Every structure is written in C-alpha cells, then in structure tokens.
Amino acid sequence: GQLLSIAVPQLIRHSLQENMYKLNARLNGLSTGIFSAESGARHWFNAAKLSSYLVWKIGKRKKDEILYIKNNCLESYFSITRTTKNIKINWQFGNLNIIELICQYIKQLANNKKQPNAPASKIFIYTCDDNIDDVKELQKKGKGNMILLNPLSVLKMTEKEKVNLYRTLPLAETGNAFGR
Fold it and tell me: How far is CA 96 from CA 6, 55, 75, 86, 103, in A?
C-alpha cells in the first residue's frame, strides 16, 4: 500500500481559521492524527491480522477519539467525553450499535465494575496531550487486552529501561510516516 503524509503550512492554517471566522463556522481540527496512529497499529503490532481492534486516543479534558476496525475495514469513528459517571458521545460516524457497546465497555472500566468483555480483540491506546495518568489507569483496568500504541515498544533496544514508553506516546501519530 501507499501512504500519504500531509503537512499544512502555517499560512494555510491561518487562512482556514480566518475563513471559518468570516463564515461564522467552526473547524475543530485538520489532522491525520488518529488515522496515522491506526496505520502504526497495523505496521508495528500487526493489527491487520486481528478480527477487530480499537485505536483509542485519550484527549484533553477526557475528550477522546476512537476508531473501531473490523475485518480491516473502518466500522466506526467517534468522539466521547468521559465523566466520572457517564460517557457522552460528541459525534459519530459509522455503526451506532458498536459505538454504544464500546461506550458501555468504557463506562464499566471507568466505574471499576468487574472486568467487562472487550468489544475488540485488542485495544491500542495512546495520548498526545500528556494524559499519562489516564492511560495508565485504563491500561491497568483493561488488563492484557490494552496495548500502548508506541513504535518504540516494538524496537529491539539494548537499553529499553532508558525509554519512557508513556512520555513517548505522541509518537503513535507518526504511523503514516512509516511504510513498507
């Protein structure tokens, strides 16, 4: 397969922002972010061999993005806000039934219920916003099903203890920079 890496110059970013303001519209983001991380999951962790998997980006103020891949096809892409008692879907694309099932799983994890059945074979989790405590807590609750999405964790390194796999989680979004 071929990969496309996109960089948007600052001048264009400012132009987009100005035009959105003039149109009284909102552009929340322009990024390959989580899609690049999904590419990394396929290349670094052989996720394409799984029947299903999630890529879960832990965001600022507990506002997360999630991709659900089933049989190597994008089934759902959505954003949630996690609170102590509930999960709110901010926006969604794809299969609402699986989105609700995933939200129920996350709610059970957050509320310390007994270990729920995971909605996918593996869950690849990362953050770019320094929410390391959230990642650690969810990873611990998700047991062996949750994997840190970090390219450094699959490298053969002689001094692995010198690499902080949590501090380097933003490298997950470099997935589209690595091809075969």
Answer: 30, 17, 10, 17, 10
From the list 130, 134, 139, 138, the residue with the least C-alpha distance to 170 is 130
pTM here is 0.79
What pLDDT, in 10s, does the model give residues 102-136? 999 999 888 876 667 889 999 999 998 888 999 99
CA distance 160 to 163: 6
* Contact criterion met (CB below 8 Å) for 138 and 66: no
